[in-house]
Amino acid sequence: MSQFLKSFVKDESGATAIEYGLIAAGISVVIITAVGLIGDGLEATFDDIQAALN
Fold it and tell me: What pLDDT was estimated at residue 2?
C-alpha cells in the first residue's frame, strides 16, 4: 500500500492536464474580451456609416 501511495504522489500527468486546462481558459478569456471590445468599435463604425448613408 505504501508503494502505491508513493507512486500516486509522484504521478504528475493529472497536474499537466490541469495546467493545460488553465492555459486554455486564460486564452479563452482574452479572446472573449478582445472580441467584445472590437465588436463595440465595429458597431459604432457601422452606425456612423449608416447615418452618413441616410
Answer: 76
Query: How many beta carbons lie within 10 A of that of residue 50, not counting itself?
Result: 9
Whole-Å CA distances, 27 to 15, 20, 23: 18, 11, 6
**pTM score:** 0.55
3 state SS of 27: helix
Length of the chain: 54
Measured distance CA(41)–CA(45) in Å, rounded: 6
Among 15, 14, 18, 36, CA closest to 26? 18
